[in-house]
Design a protein that fits this description.
With 437 residues, the protein is α+β, with helices and mostly antiparallel strands. The protein is built from 14 helices and 18 strands. The longest helix is centred in the C-terminal third of the chain and has 23 residues.
Length: 437
């Protein structure tokens, strides 16, 4: 198989040292020459590493379940130890972990070069609840789309002629990804995610003290990475008590749960959306070139949106047009209602911040204080493309808050942003750079 190969730890360590020095040092410290072999796997943009809870490998223009009889027995024997996906480390580009609950799709996490994935489900399988046919992992960002319209027949026709491939009309923003994947699949652009998979020999609970020390390192790593989820019930309890103190605002279920989600976004527990201008999450350079030609006559800038975290970006967004909250009952609203909803959210946020600001440290646990402090320091602004008021800003003003978007626009001064699109019709911006706010 051309896209997966077994390599020694010695060969893999040269790659891993650059991506994740901490993991590299732990292996050399505890295992040294005892370290087992690993697998280097490659996936073109958009291909699945995990499909409906089943691990996949890519080969010859297809993704294949890792437990398929088509896959060589040695690979199956080494990697089919997991209830979902083997433990892996991203080496190149990125992957997105997300959940599909038809008709919804929810981004859950972005893993970049050096990030370890799959530990939760494999360290103690009897204590894991990670198995589920709703889990998906894609090479690169799955939740990526354009703010400009892509469903018009004239645009799709231009793209089809450009790539010489028929395209299905996207029904919504999340269908844009299928078009991006089709564009990339017929190009010569080399964009691929590379991951290192650990074989079953890495997860055996051995009596050897060095192996026990390494296993303890893996548990500690996983424990730290999941600190938010372990305490989520406490955060929920604290939030319910604090939010109940808000005055002069309507305590709607939608408003209450959306703001709780935004606190998680402020703390990088959930991804928001960002304006993208790099090749890390998508084959941006290639897609931008093709779509610039498509929108050339209308003068629109092909503005790409991808998931992103507050900790890595000065600005992230939550759009009412795309429900990414884990709360399943937060249904999408019509354009006409989003003005009121954004206004209500901003008023509730302001009221909640006043309550938190008046609280003393001894009334909060340390981790709760840290979470709420980040929420307090983040400037949250409500935008709408057709309305402006004391608690709403017109979407055309977003560049004055977002340095990255200003830079994207300045590089293409002859292009314009489609501010009248659904994405901008009810948008919350979270800004953590005081200079821009």
């Amino acid at each position: 198989m051309n896209f997966i190969e077994k390599i020694s730890w010695l060969d893999a360590s040269k790659i891993i040292e650059e991506a994740n020095r901490e993991f590299f040092n732990a292996v050399n410290k505890y295992l040294g020459k005892q370290a087992p072999d690993v697998y280097l796997a490659k996936y073109p943009y958009g291909e699945k590493l995990l499909n409906n809870g089943v691990a996949m490998i890519y080969d010859d223009d297809n993704t294949i379940p890792i437990n398929s009889e088509i896959v060589p027995l040695e690979i199956r024997d080494d990697l089919c130890y997991s209830p979902t996906i083997p433990v892996g480390i991203v080496i190149k580009k990125s992957i997105e972990l997300y959940m599909d609950f038809d008709p919804r799709s929810i981004p859950f996490g972005i893993f970049r070069a050096g990030d370890v994935f799959g530990l939760n489900a494999n360290l103690r399988k009897d204590a894991s609840f990670d198995k589920g046919d709703f889990w998906q992992i894609s090479a690169g960002a799955r939740h990526t789309f354009l703010t400009t319209k892509l469903s018009a027949n004239s645009y799709l026709g231009k793209i089809s002629r450009e790539i010489k491939t028929p395209l299905i009309k996207p029904d919504n923003y999340l269908d844009h990804w299928k078009v991006f994947k089709a564009i990339h699949s017929v190009s010569d652009t080399e964009w691929e995610t590379q991951v290192i998979y650990l074989t079953k020999d890495w997860l055996i609970d051995r009596e050897d003290l060095n192996w026990k020390a390494f296993r303890a390192y893996l548990f500690e790593y996983s424990w730290y990475k999941n600190r938010f989820w372990r305490s989520s019930y406490l955060h929920d309890l604290a939030y319910s008590g604090i939010s109940a103190q808000c005055q002069n605002v309507q305590q709607k279920l939608f408003t209450n749960r959306t703001v709780k989600h935004l606190i998680g976004v402020c703390n990088s527990m959930y991804p928001g959306f960002i304006f993208s201008d790099s090749d890390e999450l998508i084959p941006y350079t290639q897609l931008f070139g093709v779509l610039c030609d498509v929108y050339g006559d209308d003068g629109y800038l092909p503005n790409f949106i991808t998931p992103g975290y507050c900790s890595d970006n000065e600005a992230v967004y939550y759009s009412l047009a795309i429900n990414t909250s884990l709360e399943s009952y937060l249904t999408l609203s019509k354009h006409s209602r989003r003005t009121n909803e954004v206004s209500e959210l901003i008023r509730f946020i302001d009221s909640l911040k006043r309550v938190i600001a008046n609280m003393t440290l001894d009334t909060l646990q340390n981790n709760e204080h840290k979470m709420l402090e980040k929420f307090l320091k983040s400037k949250i602004v409500g935008f709408h493309c057709k309305h402006e008021s004391y608690d709403l800003v017109n979407s055309s003003e977003i560049p004055s808050y977002d340095r990255k978007l200003r830079e994207i626009i300045s590089s293409k001064k002859d292009k314009k942003i489609a501010y009248n699109s659904a994405f901008f019709s009810g948008l919350l911006g979270v800004f953590n750079n005081e200079k821009d706010c």
